Amino acid sequence: MSYPAAIFRRVVALCAAAALTATAWAAPATAVAVSVAPAPLQYAALGDSYAAGYGSEATRDACGRTPSAYPALLARESRGGLALRNAACIGATTADVIRQSSVLGRQTGLITITAGANDLSIKQVLQTCMSQAFAAACQRENTLVNRKLATVLPRDLNRMIRTVATAAPNARVVITGYPLPFAKNRQCATVPVNAKLRTRANQVISRLNSAIAAAAARNKVRFVDVEQSFAGHGLCTPRPWLVGAEGMRDNRVLHPTATGHARGYLPAVAASGLADRA
């Protein structure tokens, strides 16, 4: 999906205005204006493996960054309007995003962030709860996740957003949510997770997205909801945009595929009014 023209124009409008150079020629009253292309908007992508693009294609990057990640697609579709620096990395938490903010500065004009899931250790909870033999441990993990969602995560999200905004006072900050991992189907032969656990995973991601949206509102930055753009393409559907059981060995499972980035994340982020004020 191509980058919407209206959004692109607004992004380019944030770039430095084109300089005009007047050169006097033979006739004193005549000047020729030479336009200079505006400098690209400095764009920083922060966050976890979802922002890095891990799982969308093969990568040798230590942080799992790929050209199929939505930040890379956003920059590519801008046709030179955005100069990307992707600092996202596998396993990053909100505390890691604070460390990633060292790449920011007054010259940064646009920031996207995808973070929060690793603060909850969601994959660890799923792995623990997949076996009845670990029922007690599963309950403890669920209780811990609930506690983090209620108290710890909102505080950490606030700290992360405020740190980023302070490090780049002139930047537009956009923070995304996550797609729900599973479709609401009774049967799911492609994923070895029972219906109860699939429902629980969706509930946790939905609450996580609500926490991110609330933190964005408190700090006056834009939140991008991707639940709807991924609707009908979670695991257990005929055409999932998330890596399924085939990615369990190398931890790609639940990550967006290249299609998930191109048709799920990219249009949602591009349509968020990148150059508008929150």
UniProtKB/TrEMBL annotation:
Signal peptide (UniProt feature, chain positions): 1-26
Annotated InterPro entries: SEST-like, SGNH_hydro, SGNH_hydro_sf
GO molecular function: triacylglycerol lipase activity
Keywords: Disulfide bond, Signal
Cystine bridges: C63-C89, C129-C138, C188-C236
Gene3D superfamilies attached to this UniProt entry: SGNH hydrolase
Biological process per Gene Ontology, one example term: triglyceride catabolic process
Protein name: Lysophospholipase L1-like esterase
UniProt organism field: Actinoplanes italicus
Active site: S49, H255
Domain of life per record: Bacteria
Residue span, SGNH hydrolase-type esterase domain: 45-263
